[in-house]
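ZP: hey, is the pyridoxal-5'-phosphate complex queued? I don't see it on the tracker
AM: it wasn't, my bad. submitting now with these inputs:
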Amino acid sequence: DLESTQDPRRAYDLDRAHVFHSWSAQAGLDPMVITKAEGPHIWDADGNRLLDFTSQLVYTNLGHQHPRIVAAIQEQAASLCTVAPGYVNGARSEAARLIASHTPGDLDHVFFTNGGADANEHAIRMARLHTGKHKVLSTYRSYHGGTQLAVNVTGDPRRWPSDNGSSGTVHFFGPFLYRSPFHSTTEAQECERALAHLEQVITLEGPGTIAAVVLESIPGTAGIMIPPPGYLTGVRELCDRFGIMLIADEVMSGFGRSGRWFAIEHDGVTPDLLTFAKGVNSGYVPLGGVAISDAIYETFAHRAYPGGLTYSGHPLACAAAVATIRTMEDDAVVENAARLGSDVIGPALRELSEQHDWIGEVRGTGCFWALELVADRDTREPLAPYGGSSPQMAAVLKACREEGLLPFANYNRIHVVPPLNIGDDEAREGIAKLGVALARARAAG
Ligand code: PLP
């Protein structure tokens, strides 16, 4: 059945005729055809091999076509492709057990969704019903998904067209020392001021109205801003003091990306609800979910939870999760991500920043890094405006592709987010290509 889909030219033409793409004006699009992928590489329609420094949308944490995940999906497909959520399925039960064995504290109950946005929607619904309160606080410079509530919780320009003021969401500033909203000069100061700011927002919004604070443990798409030590602990304390649920969005930062199973572990904090997707099964089949604390589980022990999805805990997706998590355990993938960050990627990017004055800051951990590109290191003027692009950024991205590197870019940033099992030499090679691309774009003006 699929033979006719293998012709790249036909695939491209049919895409332009019939496929409506995310977040884009359709007419100007010229999407790349990917014909093949393996490990950290992809191939385009002309047969060029590119090193995938994006992990697609930061989800192929074990790279492309990992044989154990492919085999698990095939095995599950051969035996039982699908059963509805109300029935027990072995792959789903085992995936839930494995996830619960790695989530912090008492987050031992798992509600499965199709992805990250609906995981956040359900986590917020649970928090609202558990607390009897409605308002949700989240940060500017964040991304929580594209559905109506999740995009309103989001703090980036993609929220604006969908914000009609009726979602019960309020935004505050998280810590971001390089562009500090609090004019801080040290991490300790940024931490203290960001917490004082959040306490004020809670007080002024009314603690009795706030169901949840939703935070990416490390904001991802918005810039990989590592929170200063103590910040997440401080948010936890504020939530406890005011009877507010803490929802950690680990959709991008979870499952090893930051060098820990979950990024919130860097501060030793247990949230009330934790949302995940992407890396849970390397994104081979859509899967997300909410890990739920004992207390919130109790709220729904004798009262129906008013929510569900046709594909909640789909066996093919859960089989992929079982193989992914077992591979991560067997191959010490999380430890490898931490080592790559501290010994390979971090040092190589810092070295790069010494050679290229467009790099204003290098920040990250594990396989989760951002380069903040600036037109001027002193003023920190971004190389592209917030919410937009620029000829210089476009030139960097074009040069990356010509050098055989697939880069992840957002406004004035390049993110270095390869798979967690990339080889040391491949990681260094990709960063060298990035260096050549930066130099070429700089020379072009
Ligand atoms: N939360 C975070 C932190 C994300 O990075 C994303 C996607 O990039 C989402 C939620 C939304 O996930 P999905 O696109 O699977 O709905």
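AM: back. The CA atoms of residues 18 and 141 lie 33 Å apart.
ZP: great, adding it to the tracker
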